[in-house]
Design a protein that fits this description.
This protein has 13 helices and three strands; from the N terminus they run αααααααβββαααααα. By secondary structure, it is mainly alpha-helical.
């Protein structure tokens, strides 16, 4: 008599792949949850449709298309369906590499055509105005908040990369910052003069605040950016590290106070970094390295953005465009 409670062969292989993502590739908790959801749903569909004994080598591209069809029937968007297919492709690539399947059936399934939603990017003048006018009226800790803007816009780093920075990651002699990106990948990004000046001002205040708040405890923190009231610093192992949510609120508040859209967030500054570099003539591959993009196609979104801007200029100014 068979044990109905035992996991299907597909779910067992999904779990094995998730362990590879976590242990060998350093995938984030968010990525692992997404892959577990997408691949788990796919494995359940295949098992329910074609039997509990179904193995990966018997899955054909038509089966995958059938699963994507069920996602559309459930009302999922093309973007959600594309994410599901990306997870399935990644899993099949691993199955093929480890000899569990001879051919990657998922590679024969085309990705749904997605509408291009290009990010709204503030102009160079708008960004300079926001960064240059951080003061006591606009910020709770002006020196810290200006340094945050300088690194987000001046270095193009992600919000999570910003809050993960430690004091030791600032390499003053080399005028660079060591950034830990997605998948535990590391890269160095140049530290410009304006960002360096803002950091020095902030670090002086940071030291003074810690000294004033911890005369007896002599607390310290490896974290570069600290929360306003140094919450948690006095606890054993406490760092008082600023959170990504707090950075989001800081950026939004400063942007709105200077007349920018309320949908501005830390990633908007990263988009602005890449877009403005491209507009000023930077090489696309150099921008790819600075942003830490694994694929050049990700960086090419900025080319589409500037092309769109040029089209708008053309439509508004050229006599033959009207």
């Amino acid at each position: 008599m068979s044990d109905d409670t035992s996991p299907s062969p597909l779910l067992t292989l999904v779990d094995a792949y998730l362990r590879v993502l976590a242990n060998e590739r350093g995938a984030s908790a968010h990525t692992l949850r997404a892959y577990q959801r997408e691949l788990g749903d796919f494995a359940v569909y295949i098992t329910a449709t074609y039997g509990a004994s179904q193995t990966p080598d018997r899955i054909e591209h038509t089966h995958i298309r059938g699963y994507l069809g069920t996602l559309y029937d459930r009302g999922l968007s093309k973007a959600s369906t594309a994410r599901a297919l990306a997870a399935i492709r990644s899993w099949f690539k691993w199955l093929a590499r480890t000899g569990r399947v001879e051919q990657n059936a998922a590679s024969l399934v085309s990705t749904p055509r997605l509408p291009k939603h290009l990010p709204r990017v503030p102009s160079i003048e708008q960004m300079n105005r926001v960064v240059d006018t951080v003061d006591d009226e606009t910020a709770a800790w002006p020196a810290r908040d200006r340094a945050i803007l300088e690194l987000l816009y001046g270095c193009g780093i992600r919000n999570a990369e910003l809050v993960a920075l430690n004091l030791a990651d600032i390499h003053w002699a080399n005028e660079a910052i060591l950034v830990r990106g997605k998948g535990q990948k590391q890269r160095y990004v140049p530290l410009g003069d304006a960002a360096a000046e803002a950091l020095r001002t902030y670090l002086a205040e940071r030291s003074a605040r810690i000294a004033a708040a911890s005369l007896a405890a002599r607390a310290s923190s490896p974290a570069l950016f600290l929360n306003l009231h140094l919450r948690g610093l006095s606890k054993p192992g406490g760092e008082a590290r600023l959170t990504t949510r707090s950075v989001g609120r800081i950026v939004k508040r400063l942007a709105v106070q200077h007349g920018l859209s309320s949908d501005v967030h830390p990633h908007t500054l990263r988009h602005a970094f890449g877009t403005h570099l491209l507009e000023e003539g930077a090489d696309l591959r150099a921008i790819q390295e600075l942003l830490g993009h694994e694929r050049l196609s990700t960086t090419q979104r900025y080319t589409q953005l500037t092309t769109n801007q040029l089209t708008q200029v053309y439509d508004c100014t050229h006599p033959r465009a009207k």
